[in-house]
């Protein structure tokens, strides 16, 4: 069982804005792997030199945001020749960039919400009129809904843009698609059961994801079987179009007419008590512990 993996580092923490969430994810993964006999150890790159990872045979990446998901840590591990979990360098880098992810998805014919990139010279009133309200403003290269603002009143787009700029230089405005928020976990070649997310807040923000207990999750989502099959196939296409392998999560929205739009990909999904991939995996008979072992078994280098 666990002894086949050798000495395993669970990467967690780091220095991104998602450090606290990463510590929660990593702690859960570490406990799960240890319970299955894996020789697993916590490793926080904010406190330890990366070169110390040479003492491990495999790495489970539970870093969120920043270097954990943008391809940097994946590249370092490949240079050291250490197998790691999740997508590789290119897919991680693209997946962390919502703008370039959308460009690729549009190129392969996948539906995405209408969007525009913003800068200081944007005609904010014209964008509001074009998209209508509500609309969302978000940094293209952050996760966990950090820096996402919902614009519900005319004239608020510019101030939302200025607030989002605190989280990054690349900011987008996205037309609100308000028929429901959903996600599809990807595990190997399989799309897991779809989850519908019903936050008590205005949208699925950081608080709803990690801090509140009143967010409702419906799994499997109550969608017609043909629609489920269509979306799962689209999610796998969205994942592989970025060159992604291993495991991840693809989020999508539905409009009031039942049309779906792919939103973003997560190449290092959360593994906390509130997290979605473990919830979906349970529907196909995978416990949290079994899921962690299965992900670790898929670790690869290059």
Feature tags:
302 residues; alpha+beta; Rossmann fold; D-amino Acid Aminotransferase, Chain A, domain 1; Dna Ligase, domain 1; 3 domains; six-stranded antiparallel beta sheet; four-stranded antiparallel beta sheet; 11 helices
Radius of gyration: 19 Å
Helix content: 25-40%
Q: Average pLDDT, to the nearest integer? A: 92
* Class by SSE composition: alpha+beta
Question: How would you characterize this protein structure?
Answer:
This protein has 302 residues and is α+β, with helices and mostly antiparallel strands. It folds into 3 domains: 2-85, Rossmann fold; 95-111 and 178-297, ATP-grasp fold, B domain (D-amino Acid Aminotransferase, Chain A, domain 1), CATH 3.30.470; 115-175, 2-Layer Sandwich (Dna Ligase, domain 1). It is 34% helix and 21% strand. The chain is built from 11 helices and 13 strands. The chain has helices spanning 19-35, 66-69, 72-80, 89-95, 98-107, 124-131, 157-164, 206-210, 225-241, 276-282, 288-297; strands at residues 7-11, 39-43, 58-61, 115-118, 135-139, 149-151, 171-175, 181-187, 190-191, 195-198, 216-218, 247-254, 260-266. The strands form 3 sheets. Strands 8, 9, 10, 11, 12 and 13 form a 6-stranded antiparallel sheet that branches. A 4-stranded antiparallel sheet has the order 4-7-5-6, covered by helices on one side. Strand 12 (247-254) and strand 13 (260-266) form a beta hairpin. It is globular, with a radius of gyration of 19 Å. The two termini are 24 Å apart. The model has no long low-confidence stretch (mean pLDDT 92).
């Amino acid at each position: 069982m666990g002894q086949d993996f050798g000495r395993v580092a669970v990467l967690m923490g780091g220095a991104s804005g998602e450090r606290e969430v990463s510590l929660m994810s990593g702690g859960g993964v570490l406990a799960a792997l240890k319970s299955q006999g894996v020789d697993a150890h916590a490793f926080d790159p904010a406190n330890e030199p990366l070169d110390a990872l040479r003492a491990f045979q495999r790495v489970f990446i539970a870093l969120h945001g920043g270097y954990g998901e943008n391809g940097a840590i994946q590249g370092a591990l490949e240079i050291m020749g250490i197998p790691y979990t999740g997508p590789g360098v290119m897919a991680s880098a693209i997946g962390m960039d919502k703008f370039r992810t959308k460009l690729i998805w549009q190129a392969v014919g996948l539906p995405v919400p209408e969007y525009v990139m913003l800068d200081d010279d944007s005609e904010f009133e014209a964008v509001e009129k074009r998209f209508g309200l509500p609309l969302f403003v978000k940094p293209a290269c952050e996760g966990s809904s950090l820096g996402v603002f919902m614009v519900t009143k005319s004239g608020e787009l510019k101030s939302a843009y200025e607030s989002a700029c605190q989280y990054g230089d690349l900011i987008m405005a996205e037309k609100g698609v308000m028929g429901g928020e959903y996600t599809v976990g990807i595990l190997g070649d399989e799309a897991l059961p779809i989850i519908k997310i019903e936050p008590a807040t205005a949208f699925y923000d950081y608080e709803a994801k990690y801090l509140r207990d009143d967010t409702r999750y419906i799994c499997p989502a109550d969608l017609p079987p043909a629609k489920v099959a269509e979306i799962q196939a689209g999610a796998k296409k969205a994942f592989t179009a970025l060159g992604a392998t291993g495991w991840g999560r693809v989020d999508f929205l539905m409009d009031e007419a039942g049309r779906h739009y792919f939103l973003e990909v997560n190449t290092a999904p959360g593994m906390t008590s509130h997290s979605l991939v473990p919830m979906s995996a349970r529907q196909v008979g995978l416990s949290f512990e079994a899921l962690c072992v299965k992900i670790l078994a898929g670790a690869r280098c290059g």
